[in-house]
Amino acid sequence: MDSIVELISVLDNDDIKDFKSFLKRKNKRNDVKNIRLLEILETDDINRLKKLYGSSKIKTLIMH
Q: Judging by beta carbons within 10 Å of its beta carbon (0-12, 13-18, 19+), is residue 37 exposed, middle or buried?
């Protein structure tokens, strides 16, 4: 997980905006969480991450 946060920190605001636009175009369903996940990873807010996925899935995400 630290590697992902580190990669996101390298992106500037325009890159993040472009990536969010890309995700919106690619999303076929309305219930996907990838854009919210990106926003949470930008802030490194573990509490919001727990609310988004639940604490049991967080352990799995952190371990990988």
A: middle
SS (H, E, C) 2-64: HHHHHHHHHCCHHHHHHHHHHHHHHCCCCCCCHHHHHHHHHHCCHHHHHHHHCHHHHHHHHHC
**Cα(45)–Cα(55) distance, rounded to whole angstroms?**
13
Model confidence over 25-55: pLDDT tens digits? 999 988 888 888 888 888 877 677 677 767 6
CA distances (Å), origin 1, targets 5, 17, 19: 6, 21, 19
Q: What's the token pair of residue 23?
A: 């995700």
